[in-house]
Amino acid sequence: MKEALMSGPAPHDTRTTGRSLGPEAITPLVLFGLTILLVIASRWISPNLGGFHQVAAIIVLSSFLMVVAFGQQMVVLIGGLDLSVPSLLTLGGILTFGWSTASGWSLIWILLAVLVVNGVIGALSGAGIAWLRIPPFIMTLAMGIIVYSAALGITAGTPRGHPSAALASLFTGRILGLPPIIYLMILFVIAGTALQSYTPFGRKLYALGTSPVAAHVAGLPVGWLTVATYALSAAVAGVAGFLLVGYAGGATLVMGQSYLLPSIAAVVVGGTSILGGRGTYISAVAASLLLTTFSTIISSVQILEGWRTIIYGCVILIAIAALREDLPLWLNRSLQRPSRPPPQAANAQSAQ
Amino acid sequence: MSAVAGPLRVERHRRPVAGRLLGSGTVMVTVIYLLLLLVYALCQKNALSMTQFSDQLSNGLPLALAAAGGTLVVLMRGFDLSVAGVIALADVLTATHAADGQMGALLCLLMVVGVGLLVGAVNGFLVAYAGLQSIACTLATMIICSGAALLVLDAPGGSVPEFISDNLTGTLLAVPVPLIIALVVLFGWAVLRRTNWGVGLYALGADETAARLAGIPVRRVKFLAFCAAGALYGVAGMMLAAATSNGDPGAGTSYLLLVFAAIAIGGTTFTGGRGGLLGSMIGAATLLLLQKVLFSLGVSSFYTGIGQGLIMIAAVLIAAFSARLARRMPR
To answer: Of A220-224, A300-304, A319-323, B164-168, which one has max mean pLDDT?
Structure first.
């Protein structure tokens, strides 16, 4: 029995054997499908909704969340959580705003500088987590508070700078009738998915998230992988701040605050397990789109802000409950006998 | 990894006092708190006066109660984000629906505890019985609660009955009422942690499979922990309304991260099974005292966050270091 446990799951366990074509592929499809349905249904709410321009606007609006969710999802994938996202997004925004000049050429240098500054800060968090063994939750929370406080002190509350016309044209310009940011986002999502699913680095993160001990035994550089992941998350949070400056034409100290909970929501609604080792970026992208679409539609409905918030919360709850990968299994089990211990407990018992 | 936690805990009882003290996060945070208090006393003349103490207690109690509730969930390796929503909801309910007088205060207490229990029960059901991730579904319940808070009161305002705002922040027989409330919570915890539920909570946090095999009703323990946490958040919201004398539907947001900071400083490990309510409550007090100390040292209030962040990291490192030291001490 012990041998069987070690060598792998029993063949009848569909949760594991069917995973390559199972929930990981279905979740994003369901989420994309729901988003499309929602867009079509929104026509009934208001004739202004559901049009071509509105869909483009929603994609633009959700691009910041998609970027942030990439970093958050990578961190959750290795079993952590990045609470420094809002502060690092703000930092990226403040730096971009402060450094940007009228000419368009310096943009790429600003972006690189933001990536480096944020990356170093993220790497520091990663180092604390990897080598000082500080829990990710606490390390990133502390780092977030420190960065925010430093930004607050240095800017004395009001970030100064120039709006960048070149950056703004990412959102106001048109290539084939669409804002350039949409093409950039498509590239970003492809690059993100490729990094996560088709590079050794990405696959190692799955191994690390599934079992840090096993990853260490297998000879993976667990410490460096952790540092790289947190650096990556901080860097893309900076990118989101960079883009937001282009969208909003300026930076504020609170610009990041509204992205912490949505980034977590996008990741968990996208089916990524908070315990690590499971989930794909494309699902988080789909979840970002769904959540943004929903909040855009609901904000055009004439109801009290409180009801809007409640409905939004309910949608997240329903999405989380409905997209459980073992929902059929759980329903089956709870219909048969309400309080039977899960199979792995029974297995472990007989192994002993 | 978790298999090691079991036997270690048993051995701890036989350890000499010095080793036990070094290994305890609660003792560490108390030492940090006292050191800060010393610094504060040196740079502020009236630092140790009764009014100062009483002020700090009533300002700190909402965070301390919320952190105490959050600790119950963190002890079993969960996260409860609903704290922000419940505090906001209880806060605005106190500012709009509470009546004056003793009965009014009592009914208000029942109301906020009831709301907290309800939200806690929903969380508990979703996590323990439906098997959802705690961070995910408490995120949803948090959003729902803050929406409900907006429905009750759509902008900061309302008024808290004088009986509540005066008595809950005043003194009773020369003892500050917030201190009494904190002690009541700690006494309740001291009793509860010795019950089957309390023992189960620690066992569950240390190793869930082992706890289940040992016959602990894992689901019920989890469910009740979320309920108790919710009730504490409710009381925290009422105390917040009493301390600020009005209601604010956005009041909870600033508490979300501070609660986890207080728990971390208080020595409760986020890997479950270790820590306690007392540490978190002292951790909450430490966070607030730190603000005062930095202010009296002449540090701009902009930069207090740097101090808070550093002290969080320091507290965790000190706790880890002293725990290692304690393990190496001769038995």
So the answer is: A220-224
* Residue of chain A minimizing CA distance to B153: A306
Strands B171-172 and B175-176: antiparallel
Burial class of residue B26, CB neighbours in 10 A (0-12, 13-18, 19+): buried
pLDDT, tens only, A115-126: 999 999 999 999
Find residues 173-232 of chain B whose CB sits inside 8 Å of chain A: 209, 212-213, 219
> Is B139 in contact with A345 (Cβ distance < 8 A)?
no
Question: Is residue B133 pLDDT above 60, yes or no?
Answer: yes
Which candidate from A132, A308, A348 shows the least CB-CB separation from B209?
Answer: A348
Instruction: Identify which has the larger pLDDT, A116 or A271.
Output: A116
The answer to whether residue B317 neighbours chain A at the CB level (below 8 Å) is: yes
CB B62, CB B257: distance < 8 Å: no
Q: Using an 8 Å Cβ cutoff, are A264 and A72 in contact? A: yes
Q: What angle do CA A295, A298, A300 make, to 5 degrees?
A: 115
Q: How many CB atoms lie within 10 A of CB A217?
A: 10
What pLDDT is attached to residue B17?
A: 60
CA distance B215 to chain A (A): 11
User: Tokens for A343?
Assistant: 């199979």
Residues with Cβ within 8 Å of A3's Cβ and at least 6 positions away in sequence, in order, are none
Provide Rg for chain B, Cα atoms: 20
pTM (two decimals): 0.81
Nearest to A314 among B144, B150, B269 (CB): B144
State in Å, rounded, how far the first CA of chain B is from the last one.
23
Do A111 and A242 touch, CB atoms closer than 8 A?
Answer: yes
Residue with tokens 């249904």: A41
A158 Cβ contact partners less than 8 Å away, ≥ 6 residues apart = none
Closest CA to A294 of A271, A310, A272, A273: A310
Q: Does the beta carbon of A339 lie under 8 angstroms from any beta carbon of chain B? A: yes
Instruction: Please check whether residue A284 is in contact with residue A69, taking contact to mean a CB–CB distance below 8 angstroms.
Output: yes
Q: Tell whether A138 is within 8 A of chain B (Cβ).
A: yes
Contacts of A29 (CB under 8 A, 6+ apart): none
Q: Do A313 and B317 touch (CB under 8 A)?
A: no
pLDDT digits 0-9 by tens, B80-121? 889 999 999 999 988 888 777 778 788 888 999 999 999 999
pLDDT in tens, A37-76: 888 877 777 776 667 777 888 888 899 999 999 999 999 9
Other C-beta atoms lying within 10 Å of the C-beta of residue B52 = 15
DSSP B189-227: HHHHTTSHHHHHHHHHHH-HHHHHHTT--HHHHHHHHHH
- Report chain A residues whose CB lies below 8 A from the CB of B1: 213
Q: Compute CA distances B281 → B229, B263, B265, whole Å.
A: 14, 8, 10
- Kindly tell me if the per-residue pLDDT of A310 is higher than 50: yes
pLDDT for res A348: 43
The domain made up of A26-324 is a member of CATH 1.10.3470: yes
- CB-CB neighbors (< 8 A) of A313 in chain B: 140-147
The strand pairing partners of A246, in sequence order, are none
Q: How far is B66 from chain A (nearest CA, A)?
A: 17
